[in-house]
Amino acid sequence: MPVFTSWQQGVWAALDIFLVALIIYQLLVMVRGTRAAPMLAGLVVVVLAFYLLPTEKLITLNWVVSHVLPYVVFALIVVFQSEIRHMLADLGRRLSFLRTASAGSDAYDDIVLAANLFSQNQTGALIVIEREIGLRTHIESGVPLDARLSYDLLATIFRPSAPLHDGAVIIQKDRIAAAACFLPLSMNPLLSTQLGTRHRAAIGITEETDAIAVVVSEETGAISLALGGQIERDLSADQLRERLGSELRRYMAPVTPPTPIVMHEEPDTILDSGLRDPAPETASEPGKKAEQRP
What is the domain count for the chain? Predict the structure, then answer.
């Protein structure tokens, strides 16, 4: 047992123990709830079994392990590359002093209003907000817009008859960078089977980056928020506003939702369509018979 001859040695020893404990804790937090957790548990079991077994009697096993062990580090990097990338990105985000409390714009209120509209009309939508890690690769997979973020534009994009309603909308600061974007699907086996492609794409993009994804279910109209590979389901408009405000480090004042719009009515397309049967004629006055066609 080491003996400390001065208080400086005690402080350095305490700091050493604290840093090691912090690293172990962060590793456990990083793999908790991900596909890396069972793999890491299996690896620990194999290592313990190797050290507990009498390896001097198991000559072949001892030879295999002694030759394979130097390459285990490279194998772990390959297997846990997504988790390591996420951890380093999170570390860099926490050490960054560039982000201020006033970052962002009030245009993000339009996301809450649009999500509330989609929820009322059960319109599927997926909105991704870019933060520190760029989403250029995913933006290039969609249709570039570079338009100012607004409630009306979001409502138009995700209208069921619109050609861009499939896929995700990616937002950079206060502008819509692209629509109909393709996102990576989460392969986490612990996710609920009730989550569809839209929700898995939201989780997938937040597993690889620090983005925030807002999802509206087409089947139930429920609003969900994905962040850091986790998803919060069945949020109200006020809860979504509060969560976005806390994640974007700013206050979002409550905004009165606009009057709901019936999404399935499309008078413009009805007027322009020449394939629709004409509406039957009716009497203009009570008691007056409609004119008969020849």
Answer: 2
How many other CB atoms sit within 10 Å of the CB of residue 172?
18
**What is the pLDDT averaged over residues 106-121?**
87
How far apart, in whole angstroms, are the C-alpha atoms of residue 185 and residue 168? 12
Q: How much is the CA Rg of the chain, to the nearest whole Å?
A: 28
Same domain, 32 and 129: no
Q: Residue 123: inside a domain, yes or no? A: yes
Say if CB 260 and CB 234 are below 8 A apart.
no
- Would you say residue 200 lies in a domain? yes
| Closest-CA residue to 207 (of 225, 232, 185, 236) | 185
Q: Please write the tens of the pLDDT for every residue from 122-140.
A: 999 999 999 888 898 899 9
Mean pLDDT value across residues 189-211:
87
Judge if 21 and 161 occupy the same domain: no
Which residue, among 47, 67, 90, has the nearest Cα to 208 in the 3D structure?
Answer: 90
Q: Do 178 and 170 touch, CB atoms closer than 8 A? A: yes
Is the model's pTM score more than 0.70? no
